Amino acid sequence: MTNNNSNYKYVIAVSGFILMATTFSIINSVSTILIAPVTHARGFTISEYSFLFTINAITISICSPVIGTLLNKVNIKIIMTLSSLLAGGGYILYGFANSIFNFYLIGIIVSIGVCGLTTIPISTMISDWFEPHKKGSIMGIVFAGIGTGTFFWMQFVSRILENYNYRLVYLLLGSVVLVVSLIISLFIARRPSHAYIKAKELGNDYDDNLNNKNLNFKEISQTPSFWSFTIGLFLMGISFAGIKQHIQSYLSILGYPLNFNANIGSILAVVGLIANIIGGILFDKFKTRKVLTGLGIITIISIIFLLIANKPIFAYLFAIFYGMTMCISSIWPAFGVSKIFSDDNYSVIFGIANMFMTIGASIGPFLSGLIADTSYGYKTAWLIYLVITVTYYSLFIKTTK
């Protein structure tokens, strides 16, 4: 690899950070602050609107293995450019939607775009361009873009909503997604030539590589570590999405004003940003089991604070502690695949793993909304997620033994 090509990996890392700070943050994080404005304006119930997150996650779970396989067959620029049009254009369409079914249909379009534009292609490029001992740190920095973007966009959106309706938010943010992602997809995104050579040597057809355990799902699924890892991702998806997508709604029910809720979201984002950077370094420098154990303890404490968040001090403590664990959902799936399995055809294996996590994420938001609409309320959901959290951290720790 020439020196120029070697340096280009940092351009890839910066562009990945920007995509996570714009496209991913806007579509996956900032959308939560729109729950109350949209449901109030359109007369949707919380569970009806929350089902949109479920549809998004189901769509991503279906598309993940497909995108992972296509990355070894089709030029990444083509995949990401088409995905940019779907993600950005679709998000703009939210501003014109009137019925809940309009939101559901648009959600499918946006989710396909996000799947082909963010986590899987970005993680694949990082795995292709960077050395094994740097992957955790680089992934941490790149995925810190989620916190950076969320902090900025939360404040931006809350101020717009004070004077304008939610439709303008969708139009403005959708335009940002479209422009930024298209520029990066067309002019920056690419995999090193050796990645395509390796894919060709291994074979481009997923079904034709039944003798390669790195590609054969049947072979992979026979290992205990595979099931511990993927079931853990499935449960993490339920808990993480179920909590994260309903924090703003929960705080509104507790009686907090919109600016307070936005501040909590911003604190989560800032702490999450720092946690992603530090978490990536920790995964590179220390034993994985110790890092997971520490994050597990902090996550449990944060959910306890969420249960008693009717007092502002505990709401702030929840934001700080939960933000410290953000790296587990952003870094661990991508880093865990590299740590547990071979880097050969990383995109295919990660696509399958990501499918399990997003299936779980499709359940969490709807489950939270469903429970919130009953007499049991959000606190019952948080208790359920507390048990699930203990379970998935135990599975991850078991996987690393």
Helices and strands, with pairings:
Blueprint (H helix, E strand, L loop, with lengths): L2 H27 L5 H8 L3 H25 L5 H19 L5 H16 L3 H11 L5 H29 L2 H22 L5 H10 L14 H4 L3 H21 L2 H7 L4 H28 L2 H20 L4 H12 L2 H5 L1 H9 L5 H27 L4 H23 L2
Helix pairs in contact: 1-6, 1-7, 1-8, 3-5, 3-18, 4-5, 4-8, 6-18, 7-13, 11-18, 11-19, 12-13, 13-15, 14-15, 14-19, 17-18, 18-19
Short description:
With about 400 residues, this protein is an all-alpha fold. Helix content is about 80%, strand content about 0%.
CATH superfamily: MFS general substrate transporter like domains
For the residues shown, what is the average pLDDT? 86
CA-atom Rg in angstroms: 20 Å
| Main beta-sheet annotation | none
- What's the count of strands? 0
Oligomer: single chain
Q: What is the level 1 CATH name?
A: Mainly Alpha
Give the proportion of residues in helices: over 70%
Q: What's the CATH topology name?
A: Growth Hormone, Chain: A
Count of discrete domains? 1
Q: Identify the CATH architecture.
A: Up-down Bundle
Q: State the distance separating the first and last CA atoms.
A: 35 Å
Query: What's the helix-strand series?
Result: HHHHHHHHHHHHHHHHHHH
